[in-house]
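Q: How do we represent a protein-ligand complex in a form that can be generated token by token?
A: Start from the inputs.
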Amino acid sequence: MIESASDIFILAIDGPAGAGKSTTSQRVARVLGFSYLDSGALYRCVALAAVEAGVVPDDDAAMAALISTLSVEPTADGRSFLLNGRDVSEAIRAPEVSQAASRSSACPSVRSALLAWQRGAVRFPGTVVEGRDIGTVVFPGADLKIYLDADPDERARRRSAELVETRTTDAESASLGKVKAEMAERDLRDSTRKVAPLAAASDAVVIDTTHSGLDQVVARIVAEATARGRVAK
Ligand code: DC
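Then emit the structure tokens for the protein with 2'-deoxycytidine-5'-monophosphate bound:
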């Protein structure tokens, strides 16, 4: 039997930076035997290209012209990205790219180019898609919508620890105070922009991860997916 797009189980995981989306999404995808799509990484690839080309990230027309020259491809496991054939998996995690991604993602031209791309990237039997507007705009008919949140202090602590551990940036940029300030700026921009702002869908299951361990959150999401007809492998 040929599976149609409607047979694909879409599991949307949205939320602000540092809420635990990536680790949780990857684990849930593995447990359910689904593929994984990190939409934030797509926005980051486009932002990195803008930074490197000296394009102002909030200039909609300039971003549209830039995007037409780009090829962005995830590797099979969905964790690494090739920008015009170059592996940029590490480069896209730098703090300056985070800020540029938050700015360029407010451009309608960037959002519409990536919308079609994301919709075409889901695979049978299911895909876990993480982002900011997955349950509200990209896949409003998703089979399961999760909104992960956590206290801002805890989110900043996690992101700062991650930057230190992966040595993505210098010690000052990875400091808790700096990360917290940058995160607050990004949260504000991402949730107040005109197009597809960060928001929980009205039918999303909201999970606060401030005091929950990864295993607990993964188990809850898998249980929600199973209750909607998806049996874990
Ligand atoms: O999830 P992340 O921190 O890697 O995302 C980087 C930026 O990309 C984020 O600040 C806002 C933008 N983004 C978006 O606008 N929509 C998405 N679905 C995912 C990310």
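The two ends are 21 Å apart (CA to CA). Residues 17, 39-40, 43-44, 98, 101-102, 105, 131-134, 186, 190 surround 2'-deoxycytidine-5'-monophosphate (CB under 6 Å).
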